[in-house]
Specification:
With 457 residues, the chain is α+β, with helices and mostly antiparallel strands. The chain has helices spanning 3-13, 22-27, 48-61, 113-121, 139-145, 152-155, 190-194, 228-239, 252-258, 283-298, 311-322, 324-327, 347-361, 387-406, 425-429, 431-444, and strands at 18-19, 41-43, 65-68, 85-88, 95-99, 104-107, 125-126, 162-168, 174-178, 203-210, 212-213, 217-225, 246-250, 273-281, 304-307, 334-341, 365-370, 375-382. The relative contact order is 0.12.
């Protein structure tokens, strides 16, 4: 990057707020997808007033800008594939306002999701979206990627809680969309358009989120099942009679990876799949639903149901679930990570296809995820340095995509498109729809400086 451009950036954000040293650039060259694209500079703005002139300067010089939160995304969305500037937004981390009377909160994009949840809980309020990385991912990244999480089965995903946004366009103009009220239909819904746009249309600088009352009680259950087919067929049975706030599953390979992390009473049960289920609400409702669950599963041969004895055991169960991603590398040094979604009734069909993929391509393939809403995390394990394994992995991915679409599903539930899925989305969206999206991108960002190389190929 030219020294003059670096000097102009430093004049906007201050000394020490522009990084160009190789070791600093390396730290911002990758995200959770483990793809690496070093930027030319990393800029650390403190507020919207600094973002706007940065974007004006970038537009004037044709410099690419990649907005970045915590870099936890799994699709390469925070990688600077065209070089240029990484706009690191973690410093915009203020909770601007908690409005208890109207059950909403206003935050900057760098606020950590778990910290927001803890803060609003002190006011008796609850922000439900709970990505697995919530302890370190940011609200801005969640909004940009349309993140979900285990609670989506009952409470929905990030887009269901975004009431309003403030954002900076590529030319530095600041726009505001949405309302602070439950209703509002004046003009086009730009808020919904920006949610999930992965930083390709504007840089989000402030977010207004809807909150709900904090549920006073919760119970956690684990159902160990005879096999994966029994587990996924139980999902619809449970959801026809109960409204869990979480309904997760692990297949036999996933269970084998983290089985040693389960509480002692749950080890060595001889089961090959599990469902992790939570109920919440008032104490009477939770108790009644818990009893209903026990009655429902009592008639299921081969199912062992256990309720977490205390908060410590609940924490152990969730620690095992969240340990899956790092544990996967026991199988192979690399993975192709997908988060496809199918209608819940088609989960058994998808699982059967995935098991066949593993046999056909001679690779470990395991699944886990949000069975309650059909969002399945598929992990194709491979050694990318082995040309045959790489080819087999890509063939397995292509077959997975075809099957998901044939089942009426979608190629991404919460990871976004980023780099990883860009070449495949025309098959889902169609050529005309994709072209319209490209034209919208040009309206917002005519110079194509905002996160170029993402979503579209």
């Amino acid at each position: 990057m030219k020294r003059e451009l670096v000097r102009q950036l430093a004049a906007i954000v201050g000394d020490g707020q522009v990084a160009t040293a190789p070791e600093e650039l390396a730290a911002y060259s990758y995200d959770g997808s483990v793809r690496e694209f070093p930027p030319a500079a990393v800029v650390f703005p403190r507020d919207r007033e600094q973002i706007a002139p940065i974007l004006r300067l970038a537009s004037a010089t044709g410099t690419p800008v990649t907005p970045r939160g915590a870099g936890t995304g799994m699709a390469g969305g925070a990688c600077a594939v065209k070089g240029g500037i990484v706009l690191a937004l973690a410093g915009l981390n203020k909770i601007v306002e908690i409005d208890s009377a109207n059950q909403l909160v206003v935050v900057q994009p760098g606020v950590i999701t778990a910290e927001l949840q803890a803060e609003v809980a002190r006011h008796g309020l609850y922000y439900p979206p709970d990505p697995a990385s919530r302890a370190f991912c940011t609200i801005g990244g969640n909004v940009a990627c349309g993140a979900g999480g285990p609670a989506a089965v009952k409470y929905g995903v990030t887009r269901d809680y975004v009431l309003a946004l403030e954002a900076v366009l590529a030319d530095g103009r600041v726009i505001r969309s949405g309302v602070r009220t439950a209703k509002g239909v004046v003009g086009y819904d730009l808020t919904r358009l920006l949610v999930g746009s992965e930083g390709t249309l504007a840089v989000i600088s402030e977010i207004t989120l809807r909150l709900i009352p904090q549920p006073p009680a919760k119970a956690t259950f684990l159902a160990l099942c005879r096999d994966m087919h029994q587990a996924v067929n139980l999902v619809n049975t449970i959801l026809h009679q109960l409204t869990p706030c979480t309904l997760e599953y692990l297949d036999h390979t996933a269970l084998g990876l983290v089985g040693d992390r389960l509480p002692a009473a749950l080890k060595n049960q001889g089961r090959n799949a599990l469902l992790l289920l939570e109920l919440d609400g008032d104490r009477e409702t939770v108790a009644a639903q818990g009893q209903r669950l026990r009655t429902l599963l009592a008639g299921q041969e081969g199912v062992a149901l256990r309720e977490a004895a205390d908060p410590g055991e609940t924490a152990e169960l969730w620690a095992a679930r969240k340990a899956l991603s790092p544990a996967a590398f026991q199988l192979r040094p690399h993975k192709i990570s997908e988060d496809v979604v199918v209608p819940r009734s088609r989960i058994p069909d998808l699982v059967a296809h995935i098991e066949e993929l593993s046999r056909l391509h001679h690779l470990p393939v395991f699944t886990f995820g949000h069975a309650g809403d059909g969002n399945i995390h598929v992990n194709i394990m491979l050694d990318r340095n082995d040309p045959d394994e790489l080819a087999q992995g890509e063939a397995a991915r292509a077959s997975l995509y075809r099957r998901v679409l044939a089942l009426g599903g979608t190629l991404s539930g919460e990871h976004g498109v980023g780099i990883g899925k860009a070449a495949a989305i025309e098959a889902e969206l169609g050529r005309e729809t994709l072209q319209l999206m490209r034209e919208l991108k040009k309206v917002f960002d005519p110079g194509n400086i905002l996160n170029p190389g993402k979503i579209f190929v």
